[in-house]
Specification:
Helix 1 packs parallel to helix 12, helix 3 crosses helix 5 and helix 6 packs parallel to helix 7. The chain is about 45% helix and about 10% strand. It starts with a strand and ends in a 28-residue tail after the last helix. It has one domain: Luciferase-like domain (TIM Barrel). Strands 1-2-3-4-7-8-9-12 form an eight-stranded parallel beta barrel, surrounded by seven helices. It contains 14 helices and twelve strands. Helix 7 links the parallel strand 8 and strand 9.
Length: about 425
């Protein structure tokens, strides 16, 4: 089991002139602390136009700043939005490689299609085609990271001539690939593409066990055809986090942030009406939380599925002993990494830092102590299936040895107007 932190850079209203800067600086302090106490990953999401819920529009900048302040923690994109109207593939490849070199080879590359209409609509991306756009983009990006030169691509969404995309990453053939997943169907797709499953839904231990079983069965099957040049067999789950020696104090410090996160998710992804720059999400949450069951001792009659999701928000909040029990259950289910969300809502920076210190001293050592044996067993179990999967990758035989780029002085002159 490995442990990560996921940053949305939430900035609840009311805002002051320094609100965003304060959140970013505190996040970097938390990441530096997490590196020191033994966390394995920091994940930075990419979102656009989502007032209060996420101000993380340039995660590569945050991760680069984190690289300068840390020594061992892996710097992970969770995720880069890949439809080309949002991020051109060449720019994604260039930024990834630069960050990998700056950090000494500590980058993980999570990607996704984009989700909310706020974001996709802002960039003119059609929801009906976002999956196809993602697939074409990730294929092109991994080629750009590995081909010398990139031999060019003409597709439905991307058209680019041969170029040598520079720099190349430190990790070979490229940083580990992950993909955002929120359902059994997308979990299965991750396995078929040989990618790590970045499960961003709050799922129970029972759900995790079933999804992990299916994921690794597909990884080991002849259906696994890597979309990149390597296989990254890993399954992660995400949950809110707070740790304190007293269970009630942990809930006092962490549960409101978890509820705020969930309310923001419902607003932007499911049923909210948003007025850009005007909607006060924090005020709406304070007014509506009791009606939607987002209070400590709610008596609201909810449908069972929604109640289970709300109850799951508490799983990563508790004492070191309680969190150990929870983590062991997910470990037994086959989960490889738990990614905690702690900079959420109005959760206080000092409480987050105290929780990270306590978790690092009292929880991480147990799981880190048996990690080496677990990694070795996993590697042995998957060595043959991964070798066979890599053998299914079709090599690129495009020959561009005669391709030449004419300089501006050598290019033929443009025809005169009217000719």
């Amino acid at each position: 089991m490995r442990f990560g932190l996921l940053y949305h850079l939430q900035v609840p209203r009311p805002w002051t002139e320094g609100s965003e800067e304060k959140v970013i600086r505190e996040a970097l302090e938390q990441i530096e602390l997490a590196d020191r106490v033994g966390f394995d990953y920091v994940w930075a999401t990419e979102h656009h136009f989502l007032d209060e819920y996420s101000h993380s529009s340039a995660p590569e900048v945050l991760l680069a700043a984190a690289a300068a302040k840390t020594e061992r923690i892996r710097l992970a994109h969770g995720i880069v939005t890949l439809p080309p109207a949002v991020n051109h593939p060449a720019r994604v490849a260039e930024r990834l490689a630069m960050l990998d070199l700056v950090s000494g080879g500590r980058v993980d590359f999570g990607s996704g299609q984009g989700s909310t209409q706020h974001e996709l609509g802002g960039f003119g991306v059609e929801r009906a085609t976002k999956r196809e756009q993602w697939r074409e983009a990730i294929t092109v990006i991994t080629r750009m990271l590995t081909e010398v030169p990139f031999t060019g691509h003409q597709g439905q969404w991307i058209d680019m001539p041969p170029r040598n995309v520079l720099p190349k990453p430190k990790q070979k053939p490229h940083p580990p690939l992950w993909v955002a997943c929120s359902s059994p169907e997308t979990i299965a797709a991750a396995a078929r593409y040989g990618m790590g499953a970045l499960s961003l839904a709050f799922i129970t231990v029972e759900e995790a066990a079933e999804w992990v079983r299916s994921y690794y069965e597909l990884i080991a099957s002849d259906e696994c055809v890597p979309i990149g040049k390597a296989v990254n067999p890993n399954f992660s789950v995400v949950m809110p986090f707070m740790c304190h020696s007293d269970a009630e104090t942990a809930l006092d410090r962490g549960l409101d942030g978890a509820y705020s996160l969930f309310y923001g998710f419902m607003h932007y992804y499911l049923n909210g009406q948003h007025y850009p720059g005007k909607t006060d999400l924090a005020a709406e949450f304070a007014q509506a939380r009791e009606m939607v069951g987002l209070t400590r001792n709610s008596n609201v009659d909810l449908n069972p599925e929604l109640k289970a999701r709300i109850d799951s928000l508490r799983m990563g909040i508790g004492t070191p002993s309680q969190l150990k029990d929870m983590i062991r259950a997910y470990e037994d289910a086959g989960v490889d990494q738990i990614i905690f969300q702690t900079q959420i809502g109005t959760t206080k920076h000092e409480h987050i830092c105290e929780a990270l210190e306590l978790f690092g001293s009292e929880v991480i050592p147990e799981f880190a102590g048996r990690r080496e044996a677990g990694d070795a067993a996993k590697q042995e179990r998957l060595a043959v299936p991964i070798k066979e999967a890599l053998g299914r990758i079709e090599p690129n035989t495009t020959d561009v040895s005669d391709y030449v780029i004419m300089t501006d002085m050598q290019a033929p002159p443009a025809p005169a107007p009217g000719r």
